[in-house]
Design goal:
Blueprint (H helix, E strand, L loop, with lengths): L1 H12 L8 E4 H15 L4 E6 L7 E4 L1 H17 L5 E12 L11 E10 L6 H6 L17 H11 L3 E6 L5 E8 L22 E5 L3 H13 L3 E5 L2 H10 L3 E7 L8 H11 L4 E6 L7 E2 L2 E2 L5 E3 L4 H12 L5
Parallel strand pairs: 2-4, 8-9, 8-10, 10-11, 11-14
Antiparallel strand pairs: 1-3, 4-5, 5-7, 6-7, 12-13
Helix pairs in contact: 1-5, 2-3, 3-5, 7-8
Length: 323
């Protein structure tokens, strides 16, 4: 779990995440994050969500990564208030004028999220390094120094901006500026708890790493699926030709042998237009991610994954219209 979190944070800082943005009501994301923080932070930290005009701000953003960023900001703020204090969140539309604009934040209208604490604040020296990876003022064992750098990388990859306003002894305010959604219609962001269940479909598993392939094979079998395994693209295509009952292709993205997962999926879908595809990868390069976003229609299960993640993604793909 720690290795997975470290990899995720480094990819975020390097702006190499496979983001899956959708039109999101930012208030919903903030509400979910504060509910999690309320169960996590010490009891002497009060959490407020500001209800102001313009609350219905929307942006095209990766929902899960935004919530992760808000959690990081909330935990950092709590650490800056060891004696307790108030952590407040505000959401709204904010216009940056020509006079207010900086080299980092051009003038214009933004959807903004503001996170404010009443903590110790930061010195000018700390502010200058706040977004640097592995920089931390916390004691050994209390943090990796990747929280703020992850937030910075995610916001920048989402074509947004982030600014810290702070003064020692007077707390810290972090404001995230995001491009406003271009349409008024907002997708439903409610999260029904998915039922964990397997299936009996035939799955073609393609993975070049033998240990990972064996693990995934046994996991799929335990879930009730019939599994065929291949170590590369050409071998998988041959299996697909010989087994017309294959319902889903579960393939790694980056593989040796001259055929990556996307090329394999394209060739397989020409043979079987009804075939469903689920990709998995720890790093996608440019095969299924372009300009920091997943290609339309692509469903990705990021490595390393847990049983519940695999269960939910498989049912999502098999129960969808996505090929």
């Amino acid at each position: 779990d720690r290795g997975a979190a470290l990899t995720e944070h480094l990819l975020a800082f390097g702006r190499k995440q496979a983001l899956s943005p959708k039109r999101l009501e930012l208030r919903e994301a903030v509400t979910r994050a504060t509910q999690l923080l309320a169960r996590t932070l010490p009891g002497n930290v009060a959490i407020e969500v500001m209800s102001t005009a313009g609350m219905a701000a929307t942006a095209d953003i990766d929902e899960a990564q935004l919530e992760n960023a808000l959690l990081n900001l909330g935990i950092n703020a709590s650490d800056a208030m060891p004696g307790g204090g108030t952590l407040s969140f505000a959401v709204g539309e904010r216009r940056v004028t020509e006079r207010e604009a900086t080299a980092d934040i051009p003038p214009g209208a933004y959807a903004a999220i503001t996170v404010k604490d009443t903590g110790q604040g930061m010195s000018a020296e700390v502010i200058a390094k706040a977004f640097d990876p592995f920089f931390t003022t916390k004691p050994v064992g209390r943090g990796t120094g990747l929280g703020l750098s992850m937030v910075y990388g995610f916001v920048k990859q989402s074509k947004g901006h982030i600014k810290i306003y702070t003064e020692q002894g007077h707390g810290t305010t972090v404001r995230i500026y995001l491009p406003k959604a271009s349409e008024s219609k907002v997708q439903d962001t409610s999260r029904a708890t998915p039922q964990l269940r397997g299936g009996n479909e035939v799955v073609l598993l393609v993975e070049d790493d033998e240990m990972v392939r064996m693990y995934a094979h046994h996991l799929l079998q335990d879930l009730g699926y019939q599994v065929l395994s291949a170590s590369n693209g050409p071998e998988a295509l041959e299996m697909l030709n010989q087994n017309p009952t294959v319902r889903l292709l579960f393939t790694d993205v980056i593989m040796p042998g001259g055929m990556n997962g996307r090329q394999l999926a394209d060739a397989a879908c020409k043979l079987r237009p009804d075939l469903k595809v689920l990709y998995t990868s720890g790093y996608t390069e440019n095969a299924i991610v372009h300009h920091g976003r997943l290609d339309p229609g692509v469903i990705l299960l990021s490595k390393p994954y847990q049983r519940k993640d695999l269960v939910n993604k498989l049912r999502q793909v098999l129960g969808s219209d996505v090929k």
